[in-house]
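Late entry, evening session. Most of the bench is empty. Finally got around to the prediction I had been postponing all week. Sequence below, unchanged from the version circulated by S.P.
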Amino acid sequence: MTTTFKKRQKEMKRMEKARMKAERRVQKKSDPNAGSGPEMATHNEAFHVVLPGDASDVELGLDTRESKS
């Protein structure tokens, strides 16, 4: 009779695994970005070139122009 018990345990384990997989699938569909890596920069953010003396440098307090003191 041990084989019947083993079969039942195996079947229960299989059913539990299938249930967990279905739950993960539903969770992924409801939140597609969950579990993904870090958010990627847009092309403009990644390749924005800041030139010395650019107006955006002055706004950020990064003025690279020499002061005329």
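Two things to note before I forget:
The chain has one domain: 2-59.
The chain has a mean pLDDT of 76.
Will write this up properly tomorrow.
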